[in-house]
Specification:
484 residues, alpha/beta, 13 strands, Rossmann fold, 39% helix, 6-stranded mixed beta sheet, 4-stranded parallel beta sheet
Length: 484
C-alpha cells in the first residue's frame, strides 16, 4: 500500500437536495437546488465501495498519512477518500490548514469544571480560524473548475462577521491568477483585528449597515443573478472541508469516541453540519464504533436553533430571530443558512445513537465572555466561541447532561487575539449596555505602573535599577538574600 502516494481512488460526487431529494451533478457550483431552492449536501455515489475495506484499514491509512510529506496530503486531504475524492493533486491548495492540536484542559481548569476535557485549537489554522478547513476544499474545487473550464475570471464573494472573510481573502490571494476576492461585512460589527485580515490580503472589502444576516441576503441575491463563487456555508464544498474537524478529533482520540462529548458553537450552522456529517461518515465506515454526543451551543442573543429544539417535537417550527450584540461575533446569526442540514443530519444522528446524542444548549453573554477569560487564565488561547463552548460544558455539567466518565472536546474556532478588544472592554468594565456583560473583579487584570514619569527624572541608570528592584521586591513581598 503506497500510503504516501496520492490516492488513486476517485469518487462520483453529486449534490443531494435536502428538500425534494433531487440529485445534481457537480459540473456547476450549486448552492441551492435548482428544482426547489433547498440547501444541498455533497455525497459520493461510490462511498459504499469504501465500506468493503473495513474500519481498521482506514484507521491505519489515515494514521500513516498523518506523517505524509506531500503537501496535498498534509492537511485536510489526508482524509481524501471521504472528503472530496474527485480532485487532482495539482488542484489541491494547502496553506497549512488542519492538524490543529487537541490541548488537554490544564489541571486547575479541569478541577474547576469538574470534568475531563480538551480544547481543539482551530485558531492555529493559517488565518487563525476553523474557516480555513472549508476554504482549502472550496478553493481546490475552484482551481479544478478554472483548469477544466478555462475560465478567465472568477469572483469569489462572501458575507462575514470576520473569520470567513479572513480565510476567503487569504486563500484567494494565494490562489491568485484569475481568482479575485470580495467580502461583505456588517459595518462596525467586526473586530479591528479581523477587519485587518482581508484588507491585508488585498480583498475588496465592502461594508453594509446592519448585521451578518443582512450581508448574507445580499450575497445570496448576487449569487442567484451573477456569476460569482459564493463562499459562505451554503457552499457544500466548504462543508466537506470542515468535516476534517471530526476526522481529526476522532484520530486524536485514537478512534475511540465512546463516552466523548463534542461542543460546537452553532453560528451559521455550517460547522455543526460538518461535524455531524463527518462523524456519521466515520461511523458508516466502521472507523469509529460509537458516535460521540454533539452539543451545539448558542448565546441567548442569537439562539434560533436552541429555540427550535427547546420546543416540544410536535410543535417545532423554525423561526429566524433578531440578534442583539454578542461577544461571540461569529455566532451572532439569527437565520443560519445551514439549519436545514442540521435538522436532517440530527435526525440521522439520533436514529443511530439515541435522543441524547444531539442537543442544543443556550448560554448567556456573561458566561461566554467569562468562559473565554477563565480558559485563558488557565493557559489556553480560546476565542469567544471557545468561551461559548466552555460555558456550554459548565451548563451541561450543572444540568447533569455530561457524566463523570465522559470526556469533552471543545471547539475553540479562532485565536483569542482576534477578540482582544472584548477582553479590554471587560477589564475596563466598559461593555456597552446591549451586551449585558459586567466585569467580575476577580477576572480583571491590568498593568501596574511602578513609577510616574517624573520619578524617573534625576535617577542615573544604577539608581534606577536599584529603585525599580526595590519597588518590585516590596510589591511581591520578596526578601533580599545576602548574595542579592
Amino acid at each position: 500500500m503506497l500510503t504516501h502516494a496520492f490516492p488513486s481512488y476517485r469518487g462520483v460526487m453529486f449534490y443531494r437536495c435536502l428538500g425534494c431529494g433531487a440529485e445534481h451533478g457537480t459540473e456547476d457550483l450549486l448552492y441551492t437546488c435548482p428544482r426547489c431552492g433547498a440547501v444541498l449536501l455533497l455525497e459520493d455515489r461510490r462511498f459504499p465501495e469504501l465500506l468493503e475495506k473495513g474500519g481498521a484499514y482506514w484507521q491505519d491509512l489515515f494514521d500513516v498519512r498523518a506523517a505524509a510529506k506531500r503537501p496535498a496530503l498534509r492537511g485536510i486531504f489526508r482524509f481524501y477518500e471521504i472528503t472530496a475524492p474527485v480532485l487532482e493533486e495539482e488542484d489541491i491548495l494547502y496553506l497549512g490548514e488542519g492538524n490543529t492540536p487537541l490541548i488537554e484542559a490544564s489541571p486547575d481548569l479541569r478541577c474547576l469544571v469538574g470534568r475531563a476535557f480538551a480544547f481543539k485549537n482551530d485558531g492555529q489554522n493559517p488565518s487563525a480560524s476553523f474557516k480555513d478547513r472549508g476554504m482549502a476544499c472550496a478553493f481546490s474545487y475552484l482551481r479544478a473548475a478554472v483548469r477544466q473550464h478555462g475560465w478567465d475570471d472568477v469572483l469569489t464573494v462572501c458575507a462575514s462577521t470576520g473569520d470567513t472573510s479572513a480565510a476567503a481573502a487569504l486563500y484567494a490571494a494565494y490562489a491568485g491568477g484569475v481568482i479575485r476576492s470580495v467580502v461583505l461585512l456588517p459595518q462596525g460589527k467586526v473586530t479591528p483585528q479581523q477587519l485587518s485580515q482581508p484588507l491585508g490580503s488585498g480583498a475588496l472589502v465592502l461594508e453594509l449597515p446592519g448585521v451578518f444576516d443582512d450581508c448574507m441576503r445580499v450575497v445570496e441575491f448576487l449569487a442567484a443573478r451573477c456569476r460569482v463563487a459564493l463562499l459562505n456555508s451554503k457552499n457544500s464544498w466548504r462543508i466537506l472541508g470542515q468535516e476534517s474537524y471530526a476526522f481529526e478529533t476522532a484520530q486524536a482520540l485514537d478512534w475511540k469516541t465512546d463516552k466523548v462529548c463534542v461542543f460546537v458553537p452553532v453560528g451559521n450552522a455550517g460547522n455543526i453540519t460538518a461535524v455531524l456529517h463527518g462523524f456519521l461518515k466515520l461511523h458508516d465506515l466502521a472507523v469509529i464504533d460509537a458516535l460521540p454526543r454533539i452539543f451545539g451551543i448558542q448565546s441567548h442573543h442569537a439562539d434560533p436553533v436552541y429555540r427550535y429544539y427547546a420546543a416540544p417535537e410536535t410543535e417545532r417550527v423554525f423561526r429566524p430571530v433578531e440578534v442583539t450584540a454578542s461577544v461571540a461575533q461569529a455566532a451572532m446569526i439569527g437565520n443560519p443558512v445551514s439549519f436545514p442540514r442540521v435538522r436532517a443530519l440530527a435526525e440521522r444522528y439520533r436514529a443511530v445513537a439515541g435522543e441524547r446524542a444531539f442537543q442544543i444548549l443556550q448560554v448567556t453573554e456573561q458566561a461566554v465572555m467569562e468562559g473565554m477569560l477563565t480558559a485563558n487564565r488557565h493557559g489556553h488561547t480560546a476565542c469567544t466561541q471557545g468561551g461559548e463552548c466552555l460555558a456550554g460544558l459548565r451548563a451541561a455539567v450543572a444540568a447533569g447532561l455530561v457524566g463523570e466518565d465522559e470526556y469533552a472536546v471543545l471547539d475553540s474556532t479562532a485565536h483569542a487575539l482576534k477578540f482582544i478588544d472584548f477582553q479590554n472592554l471587560y477589564f475596563a468594565d466598559a461593555f456597552p449596555r446591549e451586551y449585558g456583560v459586567k466585569a467580575d473583579p476577580s477576572l480583571v487584570n491590568a498593568p501596574e505602573a511602578l513609577f510616574i514619569p517624573e520619578e524617573r527624572e534625576g535617577l542615573d541608570d544604577d539608581a534606577f535599577v536599584r529603585e525599580s528592584a526595590s519597588r518590585i521586591a516590596r510589591r511581591l513581598g520578596l526578601t533580599e538574600t545576602d548574595g542579592g
